Amino acid sequence: MKFTERLVTFLKTLNPDAYGKLASELSLLETWKQFFFNYLLIFVIMLFLFVPAVLFGASTLQEQLASFDEFELDGNFSASRPIVLMDGPDIVVDLSENRTIKGEEILFTEDGIQWKRFLLFGKAEKSWDEVKDLTDTSDAALFALLLFVAPSLAFWVGILYLAIYLITIIIFGVVAYLVPKIWRHKLSFKNALKLSIFASTVMMLIELWLLPFYRNWWLPFLIYLVFLAIGIALVGDRELSGEGRKKKKHDIWH
């Protein structure tokens, strides 16, 4: 499928009324390919949205920097407690003795800066001596230091949200398959999973495009459930007793 076709399909997944036609046209494999295309497109645009978000959030960073008792780029800085510069992904300043990175994505210590690598295991680290010539101002220093870890940070955020969406799609694909049976709707698991994948587009779009400015998971998730419910109602076959229609094994759509 060409890029323009993927893009058109991306737009169609924002319309629950198109789910029936999409499900009949796309195989499950193509539907998963479309999901990854949608996620990548949305995620890349989200990364660009972080640029104005960082500019607008400069005052917030200044407030966080006020928590330092002292800060110099050569590592001579002090604070009375750990300081969370960002939450989800976690960017933390902790001056505890022998502190090493654990659950954080980026960690500032007395000795330098640590961050997770692209690989699933291991960390990267730079001492303050290696970065002390970047700039003379503390807030600009933090922004400059973040440039070292921006690729790794983007990678780990991408993996985190991708895992969340995959789990959500599978769980509610099962729900979409089981719940309609209560109202005597007939829907195969394959097509229920397709509906869950299609409905995830609006959830990803709203959550990730808002992420640089405002973190909210329940509103995108609620809209996802609404889109999924509409899709089920529109394309689910009603199982009528005594109906003798013959269907092809793979065809359950009207």
Report on this model:
The chain contains eight helices and seven strands; from the N terminus they run H-H-H-H-E-E-E-E-E-H-H-E-H-H-E. Strand 3 and strand 4 (112-116) form a beta hairpin. Residues 68-76, 134-139 and 238-254 have low confidence and may be disordered. The protein has two domains: 3-49 and 154-238, no CATH class; 56-149, no CATH class. The chain has 254 residues and is α+β, with helices and mostly antiparallel strands. The chain has a five-stranded mixed β-sheet with strand order 1-2-3-4-5. The protein has a two-stranded antiparallel sheet with strand order 6-7. It has helices at 3-12, 19-25, 28-56, 58-65, 128-131, 138-178, 189-210, 218-235, and strands spanning 83-86, 91-93, 106-108, 112-116, 123-127, 185-186, 237-238.
